Amino acid sequence: MSDNKIIKAIKDKSKDLEVEMSFFDHIEVLRWHLIRACIAILIFTSLAFYYYDFLFDKIIMGPMRPDFWTYRMLCKLGDYLNRPGFCVKEIQGKIINTEMAGQFTLQINSALIVGVTLGFPYLLWEIWRFIKPALHDNERKAASGFVLYASLLFILGILFGYFIIAPESISFLAGYKISDIIENTFTIDSYLSSVATLTLATGVVFQLPILVYILSTLGILTPQFMRSGRRYAIVAILIIAAVITPTPDMMTMAIVSLPLFVLYEVGIVVAGSVERRKLKKHNEVMKTGN
Questions:
Q1: Could you give the residue ranges of the DSSP H alpha helices within 94-222?
Q2: Is 198:164 a contact under the CB 8 Å cutoff?
Q3: Which positions ≥6 away from 38 have C-beta within 8 Å?
């Protein structure tokens, strides 16, 4: 009897060791996926650091120049609508450096931000490669476009944040004064932080349809719930737009809110598609059972 207990204990211990080894094997696989993603980000960061003159003058400092694409389009729109107030002819305010190593730190930080932004799609692809073997064939087929759609939405969000939200916010905040005796001077760190935050935050917000897809697949979210909660979503979107755009200008908030409304409606379509797929699968199972 005691021999049987010993044998059973040995078998249970071996199973525990197999599970433990399997867990650490997965950690090792994940580690290599993350290492490859970090190498890709490091390569993009190095390229950004090497071509920093173009990166700084044309990209980072773009929203501070009156000839920036957004300001030129606003001038054309103002001429078309006979609203000269739309045209931005000068960006007030002065950017300064207040630290000994401030400009060197700026070059490293901005190059790293660009490297992470450009390497984000590859990071998603490595995560997908790690998750893919654990999925069933139907789940793998349903989520096959995850990296593509998430990357496209992220890029669209980045472009929208950089060309719409960032310049609108900078032109407003740089020229906002409560007294003529106060001169607007900004540190380069504050400027870079504002541009990066506004741009990257918009890229993350544009992942809303992906989030809806995941929650719908898990059964947490339904299209009926999203339709019934549309009025609350409108309020939430307006709050998000107010947070993303630190300007009280209603036009800027409207410009920011519009794509978020569109993304919410797209989310309803995505949730409906997931629900129809689940219903179809359920009907096939029921027919097979009969």
A1: 102-131, 137-142, 146-160, 166-175, 188-205, 208-217
A2: no
A3: none
| 187 and 238 inside one domain | no
* Domain of 196, in residue numbers: 2-205
User: Can you give the pLDDT of all 290 residues of the chain as single tens digits?
Assistant: 444 544 454 445 444 444 444 666 768 878 888 999 999 999 999 999 999 999 988 899 999 988 899 888 888 888 887 777 677 788 887 889 888 888 899 999 999 999 999 999 999 999 888 888 777 676 677 677 788 889 999 999 999 999 988 888 888 888 888 888 888 888 998 899 989 988 998 898 899 888 888 888 878 888 888 889 888 888 888 887 777 666 666 766 777 788 889 999 999 998 888 888 878 776 776 777 65
Domain boundary among 205, 223, 251: 205
Of 205, 236, 252, which residue constitutes the final position of a domain?
Answer: 205
Pair (126, 268) in one structural domain? no
